[in-house]
Structure formats: structure tokens, C-alpha cells
Amino acid sequence: MIDQVSSGILVCIGLIISGLCGISTVAYHFFFRPLAAFPGPKLAIATFAYEWYYDLVLGGQYTFKLKELHKQYGKSIYGPVSRLNPDELHFDDPDYFDEIFNVTNGKADKLYRVANAFGPYPATIGTQDHDLHRLRRSAVNVFFSKRSVLDLVPHIQRIIVNFVVALKMHVQQENQ
User: Fold this and answer.
1) pLDDT, tens digit, 9 for 90 and up, residues 103-152
2) Does an H or E element contain 72, and which?
3) How far is CA 87 from CA 28, 53, 65, 176, in A?
4) First vs last Cα of the chain: how many Å apart?
5) Would you say the pTM of this structure is higher than 0.90?
6) Are 29 and 44 in contact (CB under 8 A)?
7) Helix (H, G, I), strand (E, B) or coil at 79
8) What count of other Cβ atoms lies within 10 Å of the Cβ of residue 20?
């Protein structure tokens, strides 16, 4: 009897502590994080559940949901920005490119979750440390300049046109 009461109390204490941790984490995301001022859906601000729902339950639809989020939340004093999850913002304006991707005010290490999104492989994209990433990136920097990317646009457009033509032919063959 005493063991059952003791284990019941321990379970209750564990649940209370877990609940308090969850509540404090959500409060931190809403009020105390550096990103707290940026608008977005409440569930997306509090947890990753919003993003997971659209990507896992609805089969990768979160990318398409972004446009709706910008219509709803993108008219803030911060410009065309919406909060995707507790750790990320999304900008709906290409004019922000230089401001976002040009770290002129110092070093910025990637979040562990972001650096390991493609697996824990020692590659350029998966490098968390700023200095190591910079060293690895220097070998391929020439391929990421604006000029190099713009030079590839006609080639990419040709590939896309060929792909669309092949898809249309496949659909026509399937419908016959």
C-alpha cells in the first residue's frame, strides 16, 4: 500500500514538474526570446507542432502555408516577416537577402538542429562552427556568387521546360 502511494506521488510530482517545464518554455518563447516580438501563429511561436503538423500530417504542405502566414502576419512593423517556429523567421521579400545572409556584425554559429538537418556528416552545409564553415565554404564560394547564380538561370530554365514537357507527355500517355 505504501509503495503504491509513494509511486503515485512520484508520478504526480513528475507530471507537475514536466507541466511547469512546458509552461515555462512556452512563456519563454512568447515573452523573453529575442524573436518574441515577431508575429506568427501562437502554436508556431510556442512549439514546433505547427510546422510538424503541416509537414508530417498533411504531407509537406508547410511550404505552401507560408504564403497564407505572410498575408495574415506579414504586415507588421517589422516588414514582410512571419515567425515559423520558436527558432525561425521567414521573410517574404528578396530585398532582405543581403541583410539576412551577410553577417557583417560578427560571427554566427548555426543552431545544432539546423547544422545537422541533413545528418551528422562533416560537410560544408552541416558545419556548426562559424570559422570551420567559413574555411570549408571558401573552397566553393565562387559557385555561390550572384554572377554565377545568374549565369545558371537560362540553363535551369531549359531543364525545367524539358521536365514540364516530359511530364505533360507522360500525363497524356497515361490518359490514353
Assistant:
1) 555 677 676 667 677 776 667 677 777 788 888 888 888 888 889 989 99
2) helix 62-73
3) 12, 17, 18, 49
4) 74
5) no
6) no
7) strand
8) 10
Return the residue matching grid coordinates 567559413. Answer: 134
Which residues have C-beta within 8 Å of that of residue 126, sequence separation ≥ 6? 115, 116, 117, 118, 119, 120
Neighbours of 14 (CB within 10 A): 10
CA angle 109, 93, 41 (to 5 degrees): 75
Q: Beta-strand (E) ranges in 51-144?
A: 81-85, 88-91
What cell was used for 106?
Answer: 560578427
Q: Which of 51, 41, 46 is nearest to 30 (CA)?
A: 46
Q: For residue 28, give the 3-state DSSP assignment.
A: helix
